[in-house]
Amino acid sequence: MDKIKIKDNIKVPTNLNQYILKGIDEGEKVNNLKKKSNTFAKPLKVAAMVGIVSLATISTAYAVEKIIDYFELRSDSKYKYEKDDFLTYSEDINLSKKDNGIEFKVDTIAVDDGFFNMTYTITSDAKISDIDEEYSRAFAANPVIKIIKDGKFVNFNDYGRFDNTEAIFESDYVLKGILRKPISEANIEKGTKLTIDFDYIFGKKGDWSIDIKLDEKSTSSQSKKYIINKSKDIVKLEQYDSDIKNDKPKYKDVTVNYTIDNVVISSFGSLITTTEKSKDLVYNEPARIADMFVLRDDEGNYIDVINQVGNLPDTANKPVTNTYEFIRNNDNIKSLTLIPFVFENKMDDYSEKIDIKKLPTAIKLSKYGKVIIEDFSVTDDEIIYSYKKDGALPYEADIAFYDKDGDEIIIGSMVEDFVNRKDGTHTKRHMLTQKKYKDMAKNIKYIAIRKNNSLKLLEDQRIDFKLK
Hints:
Elongation Factor Tu (Ef-tu), domain 3; about 45% strand; globular; Immunoglobulin-like; five-stranded antiparallel β-sheet
């Protein structure tokens, strides 16, 4: 039997304290920060010390009030399904810093082994849309937030992703937002010092860095971190080059050493962290697994893996660590199985066209699973639809739109995805900003989903591991 180390859960105090964060004494520094990757287009800047910040008395009641205010302001929040968790576990922080006519304030924070959750307010002396017309939309005005520990980014590969944050205008001068960031790769303990920082806010440079210290830790969110550390050499057949003269692809077996580092189960979500490395090259780059896996529980049910955006290896034999979120389908999972997959050399076509007035309906995408389209609607400003996965279905549903004659409608839009982590419902919102696309959307009568017939699960390469 495999030995699995389990990090004991800390007892829950009756006062429901989460992480209580206070400003670090003046003079604390975050030193030796260097640009780590060409992912960043602009130079990284972090303040050397906290400077002058405002600090209010920590109050759970006040935190609840702020959380309620936010969700009343944005009733369509993609985090509305986690509202009760924010209400239960958030603590009031009320730390702020102002520079260049803009004030950034941390309103509330809730942290556990898996996630760093923060609500915040940004106030501008000038009307925000007057700074730049682009900032008339909240999602465009919302800045990229960096969390730094020991001079390094927390979950570096997560930097710059927009699916872990959202914002809404409270007024022409005030932007409110939520950040929900996975942090399971970091070792977060009592006394840990973190820095919240930005390169720019509303296109302006400035010093809005706020250093915070995790003054007291409790796992009132019932988080558990399971240390797995189980590795396997995964072998798979990969196309590695093409015979241009004969137009024939070339294949070979490649080996990737894949390690399951840990699994976090918490009220805010579930995470699996992996590390991989390979010496075999595919098109002159290291072979990889990355997010090309599905999860199955001990009862044989496939688990939906979401937010599959990973850091890719760029050098042979270089370890790369990634964290992926999954939706647990029950609270008593005893073990999991990670199964790598490949896409065989087949063309995946679309399903039959479905009348949007005849929903809900189930569409089989492969021998491994189906998608249930629950609803579909078009308003003056958006296209919005919801679906659930049933079976082994990696990635999001790729849905195409058609008019009454069956001709495809190509619509340009800003797309926002969010998931109900309580029941597994995916919702996709296409925000329509141009009149021509708004008019085109009104002609949508049918939809279809791209199939996954080329999907092949590598059952013989699976990794089984226990959580209890």
